[in-house]
Design brief:
- The chain is 66% helix and 0% strand.
- The longest helix is centred in the first third of the chain and has 102 residues.
- The chain has three domains: 100 residues, no CATH class; 76 residues, no CATH class; 39 residues, no CATH class.
- By secondary structure, the chain is an all-alpha fold.
Length: 275
Amino acid sequence: MQQTVQVIPLNEEEKIQQEINPLVETATAMTVSTVQDKERAVEFVKEINTSIKKVKSFFEPMKKAAKAAHAAICDRENEVLGVAENAKKMALQKVSYFDQEQERIRREEEAKLREKAQREHEKALEKAQKKLDAILSKSSDSEETITLLEMELKRDDLTDLERQKIESHIEIERAIMENNQEKAEEIQQRVAEPVFVPPVILPKEEKVSGAVTRKDYEVQITNPKAVFAAIGAGTLPISCAKVNEAEIKRFIKMHDGRKTIPGVAFRAVTKTHVR
């Protein structure tokens, strides 16, 4: 008894796949060394274009359906997430406002302390100068002045400013004895501009579990040319620039490759398209 073999019909996708599969093998074996070869190759590409259109037409409805389904799911997700995201935004805005207020308070306290420290510094300078003037009034020459000042340095109750002024004046007197007027003037200038280090209040780091606070900056580009100039000068790193190769290529094509562009190398490449 002869068995009957049931032939399962190929679905549309399998038919297209069978049509597409031999194309690479045919293209691999192809050679183009004459005009006739080129004509056959062009005809072959036209057949491939037909197959490509068939593939796209087959998958297009499925892609549209999948895209529509994905868009609908995303819309539902965004609708649900929107409520939570809005609440999150409101809460974080209040946290940021609190941080900004704490920073404002810190700066105000720092300014008050700076003013107070400046006043105390000026009083200490005045006191140190009076002490120095009192010693200088007792001497008649540089050598005697140095002796008196060195004796004064042995005291334990001198403030830092008083000690600095006395030590600096000893240097001045020695420069005068050496007849080095330039050095004496340089030291005198340095003494006239004492260094004042203002107090700094560091931000309070209040640990809140799950919260990470960091300083950020909002940036607005007001002059793009100036930014590129800064990159060229090395003020900004090259990573701050984003080179648009597509726009450069469009510019080169627009001028048919006749323009020389600093920092850009290019060559013409011939490409054949089959419609």
